[in-house]
UniProtKB/TrEMBL annotation:
GO molecular function, one term: phosphatase activity
SUPFAM superfamilies the record matches: HAD-like
Keywords assigned by UniProt, alphabetized: Hydrolase
Domain of life, source organism: Bacteria
Any one GO cellular component localisation term in the record: cytoplasm
UniProt-listed Pfam families: Hydrolase_6 (PF13344), Hydrolase_like (PF13242)
The protein, known as: HAD-IIA family hydrolase
InterPro entries, per the entry: HAD-like_sf (IPR036412), HAD-SF_hydro_IIA (IPR006357), HAD_sf (IPR023214)
Organism expressing this protein natively: Streptomyces broussonetiae
NCBIfam families per UniProt: HAD-SF-IIA
Amino acid sequence: MRAVLIDIDGVLTVSWKPLPGAVEALRAVRDAGLGVVLVTNTTSRSRASVAATLAGAGFPVGAEDILTAPAATAAHLAGARVALLNSGDVGADLEGITLVGDDDDADVVLLGGAGPEFGYEALNRAFGRLQQGARLVAMHRNLYWRTDEGLQLDTGAFLAGLEAAADVEAEVTGKPSRAFFEAALGRLGVGAEQALMVGDDIEYDVLAAQQLGITGALVRTGKFLPQSLERASGRPDHVLDSFADLPALLGLAQ
C-alpha cells in the first residue's frame, strides 16, 4: 500500500469537529510516508477553506491534499454556462465555467450540496431549464449526511425527483464517479492496487472505489448505519470502528 484516499465528513470530522483519534491517525499515515489525498463531496466550502479548517484542528493537510467535487466539476464543465443550485460558497473552485443568473440561458443545471436554497421555486426553475434542453449535472447524489444534530437530507433526495420529472439522468462528477477516483489516483501517482479508500458511505465511498480495484475500508462513524451494511450491493474489504483504527490495519506505529 502506497497511498490512502480519505473521505472527510464522517471519517475525519463531524460538523468539522475532529473525531476521536483522527488527527493522530492521519499523522501516523503521513509519518509512514504514504501518499494522502482527501476526497470529499463537500460543496459548502472551497478547498482552501476546508484545508484551513482541518489544519486549524490539527490535521497535517494543505489545500493541495484535497480533491473536492466542485473542483472536479469545474474541470468537467469548462467553458459551459451553468445555473448553479448549491448551499455554500465554492466559487473559488469553479474556475473556467460561467455562472448565470435566474433569467439567463444555461447549458447546464448544476446541483451542489442541499440546504435551505433547495426550495420549491429554485427546484421548479431548474425543472424548467431541463425541459428547455439543459443538461443535468450533480456534484454528488448523496441522500443524507451526518451533522452534530443528526442525519440531514442531501442532494440525492431532490435529484431523484428532478430526474424523474424531467425524464433525464444526471451526470455525477464527484463520488462515486470513476473519473473522480481516477483523478485522485492520478494526483497521487499510484495504481488502484496500491491505494486504500477510507469512507463512511458504503456505496459511494467504499464499493465504488473497490470497483476500480482500490482496497476499501468502511468506518462505523459518520453516516454509517448497520442496515446500510446489511443491504449493500457488496461487501467492503475492511470494516473499522473508526479512522483511529487505520494505523493498526496498515501495521503503522503510532
